[in-house]
Structures are given as C-alpha cells and as structure tokens.
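Entry under discussion copied across for reference:
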Amino acid sequence: MSLRNQSLVTEFTLSGFSYSHKFQVIFSALFLALYVMTLSGNLLIITAVHVDPRLCSPMYFFLCNLSFLDMCYLSVTIPKMLVNVLSDQNTILFNHCISQLFFLHLFGGTECFLLTVMAYDRYVAMCNPLRYHIVMNSKFCCWLVAFTWLAGFLHSFTQAFLTYQLPFCGPNKINHFFCDVHPLAVLACSDTFFIDIFIIANSGMISLSCFVVLLFSYLVIITTILKINSSEGRRKAFSTCAAHLLVVIFFFGPCVFIYLRPPVNYATDKMVSVLYTVVTPLLNPIIYTLRNQEVKNAIRESFRNKLSLQQK
C-alpha cells in the first residue's frame, strides 16, 4: 500500500498573507493590479515581436518565450488567491494543490533554464559577434527552448510525484498563499527526509547552478564591455547588464534561499516568494524589452498603423 493511500486529508486551507479579511482584500487588490500590468506588458511584447519583421532575431525569440512563461507562471498562483479572497473560502482540493505545485515548478523551472540560455545568447553576441548568427541559428534556438521545457517538465514532475506520495493526516493548513513542496512537506505525517534531500538536490541545486552560470556569463560580458573604446557604448552596455542582473538576483536569490535548505517555514518565506512569483514577471518585460529602443519603436509603429486603419 502506498503512503498516499494512508492520507486522511482531501483538501488544504491556504493561510494567505494575513488572518484579517481586510488585509487579504488589500493584498488581493494590489496583486490584481500587478497581474493585469504583467499580462498587458508581456502581451504587448509578444505582439510587437510577431508583427515587426525587424525583431526577428534569437534574442527576441527568447524574449517572447520568456513573456509567455511569465504570464503562465503568474497565472498559476494569483487567480486562485483572488478567487479564495472573493469567496471567503481559502481552501484547495488535494489534487488541485498538487496540480498547482506541478505547474508552478514547470513554469518556474523552465524559466530558470531559459534565463540561463538567454545569458548564453548575450555572451555569444558580445564575445563572439562575428559568429553570432552562425552559432545562434534558428534550429539551434528552437532546440535550446525545447530543452528548457523538457528540463522544466522533468523537474516539476519529480517534485509533484514525490509530494503526491506523502501521507497527510492533519493539520491541513498551509502557511502560504500557494501550494509548494516545503509548506506541504511540513504537514506530512511521515518521515520526509528523502524528499527533503531531493528538494535540496533538485530545486536548490538547479537554482544555485543556474545562478552561478548566469553570474559567470555576465562577468565575462562585463570584461568584454570594458574593452569597448566608446564611453557611451560602455555606459549603455553596463546599464543593460545591470538591469539584467537585477532580474536575475530577484528571481534566483529568493529561489536559492527557499529551496537550498530543509523544509522549515519561516515568517519571511511568503514575502520572499513574492519576489520570484510576482515581482520578477512584472520586471521582465520592463527590463528585458520595454527599455529596448527597437521594441519601443515597433510598439509605436504598431499603434500608428492601428490608428491609421481606424481613421480610414
């Protein structure tokens, strides 16, 4: 008989951010605004890249995938939280909880690998520009994106499968605003030593490894930037790198803090998780794309064409 068959719990209660309904409503209104802004920004980017042939390059191909991931990633947690607050029922069925955990790690894990691939793309562009279009050809880029999704799927499937096997006999209150492996492992009524080690070896080491590779890539890029003769060129390149590093730190820093340790619930975990589940998807379109003059020109031109068609 599997451990799962010994479970008595069929649903969980999510504590959210506050026990006060008033504060829950305030947090929900804030998150709803951020959710709409994130969806709008990322949809704008995807539309601009697809309608403007000048943005047909590996960098924008990866950015479109990142925008799609960010929309999916945020949609795993925020809508459910909003529904719970509006209905005043902070419950989630066991199977729905495992599904939320699976998709959270699918999109989050895929984004980890995609950000690493994007750093490699920038590394080739800056350090080997003459061979850039040979190395980063369309076929290779498609294979890289396929790899990120496959790696993300394998990561999330193993996390969800092992968590599903745990027996839950009560209590059933998850001290978080979404289902994740750490808050669930704390509630299990059996020894979770194996899954604890696996979480650290899987989620923690994936986050740490990608973070180190990214930092190394940007270190090499910055070294290359220092060789640029033009001070204006150096300033623009440093500005771009600094913005990209900010997103990387906001995404990977909290992930390393959360997953590279045993499953102990700290009071700060919920706020720390906001950085990589809410703030980073909002920052990505601003920092990676909307600061880019080419994209801004494409968006303006798209709006002009739309207005001219309406006037006709």
Remarks:
- Residues 3-311 form a domain with the Rhopdopsin 7-helix transmembrane proteins fold (CATH 1.20.1070.10).
